Input
Amino acid sequence: MKILLGISFTFISCIGIAQEVETVYSDLTGKTWMAKNLGAESIATSITDDSSFGDLYQWGRRKDGHQLRNSAITTLLSNSTNPNHSLFILGSSNWMVNQIDDLWQESNDINNPCPEGFRLPTEQEFEAERYTWTSNNAEGAFNSPLKLSIGGARSRMSGEIGNVGT
Output
């Protein structure tokens, strides 16, 4: 399995076994990851390479257009796991009326945003990867096999993108 990272925050890559997606192998953890963030144009060439930032997902939500960095917003929470629109949903804690936290647990889950054969990493898998970095900061993330950049996060309160480059 390959792993996906960066959901409505700085990075989003996947872990898995898909054949048609460019991947990178981490020798120290034995995991194969997508070589770039979901929605990114390219693999990062620097920490602040905006072509590597990719999409910003709301946790547990499928790829429906809301993840685009310039998607429109709404304050209407969804009553289902599929809002049937591409708007980024503003809210105090979740995009759904009744929060469901396990929509991204497996590669075959209904809202898995990863390409076929990929899934989000577990917290333990990502932490194991992070522990291999030379430093526990943006420089360590970029210098890792994952080449993570610092593309920011989208505010659930305003829809604005912040923390880009920090």
Summary: Strands lie at 2-4, 14-16, 23-26, 31-34, 73-74, 88-89, 118-119, 153-154, 161-162.
